[in-house]
Amino acid sequence: MTNNMPINFASDNAAPVAPEILAALSDANSGPAMGYGNDDLTRRAEDRFKEVFDCDLRAFPVATGTAANSLALSVMVPPYGSVYAHRLGHIELDECGAPEFYTGGAKIVLMDGEDGKLGPEDLDQTLSTAGVGVVHHVQPAAVSITQVTECGTIYTPLEVAAIGDVAKRHKLGLHMDGARFANAVAALECAPADVTWRAGVDILSFGGTKNGAMAVEAVIFFDTAKAQEFEFRRKRGAHLFSKMRYLSAQLDAALNDNLWLKMARNANAMAKKLGAGIAAKDQAYLVYPTEANMIFAKISEAACARLNASNILFYPNGPAENCEIRLVCSWNTSDDDVQAVLDLL
Q1: What's the chain's average pLDDT?
Q2: Are 141 and 77 in contact (CB under 8 A)?
Q3: What is the spatial distance between Cα 119 and Cα 113, in angstroms, rounded to a whole number?
Q4: Ranges of each domain in the chain
Q5: Nearest C-alpha neighbor of 245 from the set 28, 22, 23
Q6: pLDDT single digits (tens) 73-94
Q7: How would CATH label the architecture of 20-258?
Q8: Which helix (H) or strand (E) is 232 found in, with range?
Q9: Quick one: pLDDT at residue 3?
Q10: H or E stretch including 201?
């Protein structure tokens, strides 16, 4: 790394594209292929997802996480319905009202929970007094959880299953915003199925862009009955790509030989090293446990000033004067990158 090149800890979105995925895009760019997903690469990517999750499913590539989350919820929630989510959930903080737009006006009901996670007991109690069948209230329709959470924490399979049980008992669908799903699975060392459909998840937004891809996510339907409606909603929402093969090529390459997990494991390992190093510093502590590839830390004013003056890209977590920072590791974060931050602090 050259001395003047910024070191990225701002976001895994800021990382470059993995070379294997760039090569797959180049390979896909040869000759004609049928449009709108009627190509071999799109079919092969869906087959790979079936192998990864060990079940029948439907998988639909889209270009952004916002499209994946919002269109997924649109088939689960009517305009008079409600989605239950943590108040720090991505669909609440970072989608600019897109879920409300694509559902035709559904309401996001916000809940608290430790370390960014919904608790099944609180969810059950809230749903029990939600006014089901009362015409004056929005009607509960879905629960959406963010995996990895916006606090960098992870829902375990048991935690997802507990929420899934509550959702099913109240006849709600369960959506998982998996923008960093790869990081969660890599950290949990579990089968992807164990933390999704076996735990009650109906629809998963599978993230690619934060994990080495150029621009692709997949909406995965474990409840395949909803898939046909999604096809129309995706088209109506202007997210059906004519040259779908270029989205699918990214997914196909990521899933090939478990590249998606290899990249996530590096990001997690670098975050664990960085988090441990920060926790060992004087006048510094971790705000949340480092469970995946994100570190939230409180540091001294002097260290914050040095960080702001450096070539290290990062975001404050809250008002800058609080000296609380968020650092995100990526598929290509190196030991040297981590050491540069620790030396500066």
Answers
A1: 96
A2: yes
A3: 6
A4: 7-15+259-344, 20-258
A5: 28
A6: 999 999 999 999 999 999 999 9
A7: 3-Layer(aba) Sandwich (3.40)
A8: helix 227-236
A9: 59
A10: none
* Number of CB atoms found within 10 A of residue 127's CB: 20
Residue 61 bridge partners (DSSP): 218
DSSP assignment of 115-131, as one string? Answer: GG---HHHHHHHHHTS-
- Over residues 11-55, the pLDDT tens digits come to 999 999 999 999 999 999 999 999 999 999 999 999 999 999 999
What distance in Å separates the CA atoms of residue 140 and residue 217, rounded to the nearest whole number? 27
CB 55 within 8 A of CB 49: no
* Separation of alpha carbons 8 and 328, rounded Å: 8
Q: Taking the C-alpha atoms of 323, 329, 277 and 185 in order, what is their torsion angle to the nearest 10 degrees? A: 120
**Alpha-carbon separation of residue 312 from 9, 255, 301 (angstroms):** 7, 31, 16
Are 202 and 76 contacting, i.e. CB atoms less than 8 angstroms apart? yes
Does domain 7-15+259-344 fall into CATH 3.40.1390.20?
A: no
